[in-house]
Amino acid sequence: MDEQEFVRTVAERTGLGREEARDLVTELPEGLAEAVRRGTTDRIERFGHKDSVRRVAERTMLKEEETDRGVRTVLAVLREAISEKEFNDLMAQLGTDFSQAMKPAG
Predict the structure, then answer these.
(1) For 103, which DSSP code?
(2) Is the pLDDT assigned to residue 61 strictly greater than 60?
(3) Using an 8 Å Cβ cutoff, are 78 and 90 in contact?
(4) CA–CA distance, 78 with 16 (Å, rounded to integer)
(5) pLDDT tens digit string along 9-42?
(6) Does residue 2 contact residue 39 with C-beta atoms inside 8 Å?
(7) What does the alpha-carbon distance between residue 11 and residue 23 come to, in Å, rounded to a whole number?
(8) Three-state DSSP class for 2?
(9) CA dist., res. 41 & res. 33, Å (int)
(10) Count of alpha carbons within 13 Å of 98, Cβ hemisphere only?
(11) How many C-beta atoms lie closer than 10 Å to residue 40's C-beta?
C-alpha cells in the first residue's frame, strides 16, 4: 500500500476529506508518520495516545474527537499496510496506551 492509497483509505474510513487525512498522517508523531510512509519503525518518539491526539488536533485544527477517530483509523489502516510483525513492533514501541486505544469499545 503506497502513501496515496493509505491516505485515501484513512479519508474514506474517517469521513475526512483527503487533504484533512493527509494533514492527519503528516502530523502524527514522527516515528509513526515515518512508519506510514516507509512501513518501518526505526525511531519512535513516545507520547501517550491522548497527548498525541491533542498535539495532532492542535496542528491540524481538527476537533479532538475527529483527531482521535483519525489516529485510531490511521493505526487500523497501518495494521493492514505493514506486516503483522512490524505492526506489533510499532505498537510495542508506542506503548500500552495506544494498544488500549486500538481495542474495540465494549
Answers:
(1) S
(2) yes
(3) yes
(4) 17
(5) 888 888 878 888 777 777 666 666 666 666 544 5
(6) no
(7) 11
(8) coil
(9) 10
(10) 26
(11) 13
Q: Which three cell numbers stand for residue 7?
A: 491516505
Give the Cβ contact number of residue 66 at 10 Å: 19
Nearest-angstrom CA–CA distance, 42 and 14: 27
Distance from C-alpha of 13 to C-alpha of 1, rounded to nearest angstrom: 16
Output the nine-digit C-alpha cell for 25. 498522517
Compute the C-alpha angle 1/51/79, nearest 5°.
20
Task: Match 487525512 to its residue by C-alpha cell.
Answer: 21
Confidence of residue 43 (pLDDT cuts 50, 70, 90): low
Angle subtended by helix axes 18-26 and 30-38, to nearest 10: 120
Q: Of 71, 66, 62, give the one whose Cα is nearest residue 98.
A: 71
